[in-house]
Amino acid sequence: MNIREFGVRLTRFRERRKLSITQLAHLIRVDYMQISRYEKGRGLPSLETAIRLAKVLQVTLDELATGEGAAEPPVFSNERLFERMRELDQIPADRQDVALRVLETVIAGHELQTLSDKLRRS
Question: What's the predicted TM-score (pTM) here?
Answer without folding.
Answer: 0.58
